[in-house]
Amino acid sequence: MKFVQAFVLAAVCIGFSAADNLKCTIKPAEVPQAWRDMVNPCIRIMENQVKVEIEAAMTYLAMSAHFARDIVNRPGFSKMFLESANEEREHAIKIIEYLLMRGQLTSDVSKLLKFPLKPIREEWNSGVEALTDALNLESQVTRNIREIIMTCESPKDIPFNDYHLVDYLTGDFLEEQYKGQRDLAGKISTLGKMMASHGALGEFLFDKKLLNNEI
Question: How far apart are CA 44 and CA 106, in angstroms?
């Protein structure tokens, strides 16, 4: 099979010479463009959302690394924030896949991730502080998603209502965002009460419950 694949590739490549450093070039396929019906405002704001999701993932990675440090040693918090980072990365992948499905990934994927991409901060003084930042971050992501929805369902700003995109974001993204925000709000409330009653020991006990998936 590998031999067949190599033979086919060699058969379709042109311009193969020492003059161009043995570069193999393939003439782009001529694909009809009529099926591409997303409008530019929706494309641009969806591409920007990829960066938003990746920056959120990097912030959660920074949180996970912070709480994993030996001088902090909160493995429960570290585990939770690492899972959150993976979720945000998956969101970025889903948006890229959606743009590909609609034939509207107008930029190279590398151009969507314009550096520098960095977390909002790298150190936190307490678990409550980190959870509060996480809730604020999720709230901002939710507002961004709602902005996409409003942009792509407004007949006065675009030629037509992109029902499929709006339905996709409403069903696949918003419900998860709202559930995540409620979960973080509950954790902030519980941890705050535990620390008010037990001080620093409250955060230690809360971390153990996070590690064992009890909260």
Answer: 9
pTM of model > 0.85: no
d(CA 45, CA 53): 12
122-146 burial, b if ≥16 CB within 10 A, otherwise e?
eebeebbebbbbbbebbeebbebbe
Instruction: Give the contacts of 205 (CB within 8 A, at least 6 positions apart).
Output: 194, 198
Q: What is the pLDDT of residues 25-37, one digit of tens each?
A: 787 778 777 677 7
**Cβ atoms within 10 Å of 212's Cβ, excluding its own:** 10
Q: Which candidate, 72, 97, 98, 54, places its Cα nearest to that of 204?
A: 72
Distances (CA, A) of 70 to 125, 141, 156: 15, 31, 55
Angle, vertex CA 109, rays to CA 175 and CA 100, nearest 5: 60
For helices 40-68 and 127-152, the axis angle rounded to 10 degrees is: 170
Task: Report d(CA 112, CA 2) in Å as an integer.
Answer: 33
CA dihedral 132, 137, 141, 147 (to 10 degrees): 90
